Amino acid sequence: MRYSNMTSLEGRTALVTGGAGGIGSAICRRLSADGAFVIVADIDGERARRIASDITAKGGSALGVSLDITNSEQWRSAITEAVRATRRLNILVNNAGGASFRPLESLSIDDWKHDIDLNLNGAFLGIKEAFDVMRESARQVPAGGSIVNIASVSALMGSPGMPAYSAGKGGLRLFTKAIAVDFARRGYGIRVNSVFPGLIDTPLTKPLFESRMKQGTGDNLEAARARILERYPIGRIGRPEEIAGVVSFLAGDDSSYMIGAELVVDGGLTAGG
């Protein structure tokens, strides 16, 4: 029996939100390396275009666009750019997000709304706006289209000092499952799955370490970092490329039987309890 190269994303278009960030740029580079035309979408449009230019310079195909994921009009504009460039949209990666590192008593209503918008509502708006073109594009690929939502281990276990972020990612978890089942039963040809990263080495880790420093004790950043890493059986921070590889798997045909799946990439954190 001969197997085809099921990992190839040749002929497919992917839109990645937060594409100029640490995890997002790694996802863009990996999807491009696997053959996809990548729309690098980020609120920092200039950085998105730089990432896209770098991908193109290295032999890939990419386009950088500005996108505030909380704005429906900007979603429509980004999707229009994707369709104008390639006439399709096969893969949507809802990666953009953010966290307010504040306990409940210090959390304002605006902080709460900000985190819910970034980590839940942004994905909802994107999927709503992309639905029609993704459904049409799904007919052109045997395994259909793929939506990958980047959640967090904070959706699986309590994260002290991050109630709004945890609520947003927890909502994204069940939102993913609900539409995954619905899309499958309705025969839309669009698979929806989610990824749950643990601690990943990006510029966002420093604010997390700072939020866990014990005030008034002479505690420092390295001590806070060491305490967090003690919880990870693997003993290290994850790399953005390790998330990107999982996303590429979910984007491609090898995952064609996965509907509403949750892939946890956390160095054993949640396995250890």
Detailed description of the structure:
The chain has helices at 22-33, 45-57, 72-86, 109-138, 163-185, 205-211, 221-229, 240-251, and strands at 13-17, 37-42, 61-66, 91-94, 145-150, 190-197, 262-265. 45% of the residues are buried. It folds into two domains: 13-201 and 239-265, Rossmann fold (3-Layer(aba) Sandwich); 202-237, no CATH class. With 273 residues, it is α/β, with parallel strands linked by helices. The model is unreliable at 1-6 (pLDDT under 50). Helix 4 links the parallel strand 4 (91-94) and strand 5 (145-150). The radius of gyration is 18 Å and the shape is globular.
Observed structural traits:
single chain; 273 residues; alpha/beta; Rossmann fold; 2 domains; 7-stranded parallel sheet; 44% helix; 14% strand; globular
CATH structural class of the largest domain: Alpha Beta
CATH architecture of the largest domain: 3-Layer(aba) Sandwich
If helices are DSSP runs of H or I spanning 4 or more residues, what is the number of helices?
8
Q: How would you sum up the major sheet?
A: 7 strands, parallel
Can you list the strand order of the major beta sheet?
3-2-1-4-5-6-7
Query: What's the CATH H-level homologous superfamily of the largest domain?
Result: NAD(P)-binding Rossmann-like Domain
**Rounded average pLDDT:** 90
The CATH topology annotation of the largest domain reads as Rossmann fold
Query: What percent strand?
Result: 5-15%
The tally of domains stands at 2
Which H/E pattern describes the elements?
EHEHEHEHEHEHHHE
* Uncertain residue ranges: 1-6
Distance between the termini: 42 Å
> Care to count the β-strands?
7
The amount of helix comes to 40-55%
Determine the structural class based on helices, strands and strand pairing. alpha/beta
Radius of gyration: 18 Å
